[in-house]
Amino acid sequence: MLGMLETLQFDNGFVRSLPADAETGPRRRQIRDACYSRVEPTPVARPELVAHAAEVAQLLGLTPADCASDGFVEVFSGNRLLPGMDPFATCYGGHQFGNWAGQLGDGRAINLGEVVNAGARWTLQLKGAGPTPYSRTADGLAVLRSSVREFLCSEAMFHLGVPTTRALSLVLTGEQVVRDMLYDGNPAPEPGAVVCRVAPSFTRFGHFEILAARGEDQLLRQFADYTLRSDFPHLVRGGEPIGRDHYIALFAEVCRTTAEMVTHWMRVGFVHGVMNTDNMSVLGLTIDYGPYGWLEDFSFDWTPNTTDASGRRYRYGNQPGIAQWNLLQLAQALLPLIEDPKPLEELLSRYAADYQSRWQAMMANKLGLGSVAHDDGELFERLMSVLQLAETDMTIFFRELAGVDPQVAADKLLECVSDAYYQPEALPPEHREAMQGWLADYAGRLRHNGITPEQRQQRMQETNPRYVLRNYLAQLAIDAAEGGDYSLVHELLEVLRNPYTEQAGKERFAAKRPDWARTRVGCSMLSCSS
After folding, report:
1. Fewer CB atoms inside 10 Å of the end CB: C or N, the chain?
2. Active-site residues: which are they?
3. In angstroms, rounded to a whole number, what is the distance separating the alpha carbons of residues 245 and 502?
4. What sign for the dihedral angle of Cα 166, 169, 173, 176?
5. How would DSSP label each residue in 203-264?
6. Are the C-beta atoms of 202 and 233 separated by less than 8 Å?
7. Whose CA is closest to 467, among 197, 157, 167?
8. Cα torsion at 90, 91, 97, 98 (round to 10°)?
9. Across-strand partners of 172?
10. SS3 473
11. pLDDT digit string (tens) for 37-54?
């Protein structure tokens, strides 16, 4: 039974408004003068629902009964299409690790269609649903390991207040998928899975890049016009003709939302791990949860991606600058529509100033300050340096900082944050001295804060999460799920719905990384393999 699923209203603007590849089906090929290829999901053997996100279902107008039905599993495993669905995979290019990679596209993602509900439009996309024309030498499938990580992190990020794509469901396929997890010549079968991702759109920087790179300027204009009317209708008044100023306004909006997104990443200690231009959303949403990770030991140099281990291009501290570099590639792709580079250059410069302003405001909130004073920048920068002198859990440190009493003697302040250290009894003298000095200056700043202690603590607890999807917690959930136990996936999903609130009996989800997870694959480093 399909129940309410059959009443979902599809209005597939992308395929209606843009040219399709003349050929259908998954045969690998280069696409010209088209934005997408029609291709259907590959049916799976024994689909089984692992979990679904109730809030995302509500966005689509689905009830708990709908999500518990056999029809739900059939549809969101790719085994069945609903009336109005028109599946397709899109064509895009991208710069990967700084190098132009040419045509990429949805190699393991298939868009089912666009659902309209309560005045909002949501694109449904299956990740791991089989080969497409863009799969190159891959199979278009995904494994449970990466699918659990994508499902949980999509929802965790949303509840943290970080702009993100969402995840509706996680379904086992009942089939095995062979993957070489560490790219070391030891492939092994793993359980296959499919995630249904949900977003207003999945348009990426790379959608513009591929059209510009091929010199398909007329199609580039058509795609930009569609994007403006579909994703940025507030930039276009009624049916007015779209022109140069609209494209500049589009780029300005992408710069703004990208700065906002990256500021949130830095706030919660999230490292994307693979910030290629094809993994950048024009809506400023976190997209493509591959080898991501959370800072457990605070370090600007940490990256979770084994592929990036030598160059560390996508390390935590480099994310704001890489975002600007990626925006430069988008600007170059838009240049044929604007012709004059000056307004784009000005917006790129403005991005840097905008990000710095946002970062300072974010840090003021993390530290519970009423506003940014003229010399707070130095206080912020000193903290970033001091935190890297000893192994310090970022999430715990900032949460504990909310309990600092500025009236306490300076030599006692370090005790307030000692729980954040992995080896508090072995702190290097230079760190102890530097942190005590910083805490003393911070306490002095709080004494002239302009807000009450209660307001400060509330602001800090609303900015600094108690719970994040720690790398080892995700791995524990994967281990259990691979053994047929999905309870930890469900429990984590529930805890992460309220990341800023103390939850009785859930203290273990806020604990520091255990020693066994320090170097374990899946906890410390990950590959792009999925």
Report:
1. N
2. 278
3. 48
4. positive
5. -BHHHHHHHHHTT-HHHHHHHHHHHHHHH-GGGS-TTPPP-HHHHHHHHHHHHHHHHHHHHH
6. no
7. 157
8. -140
9. 48, 193
10. helix
11. 999 999 999 999 999 999
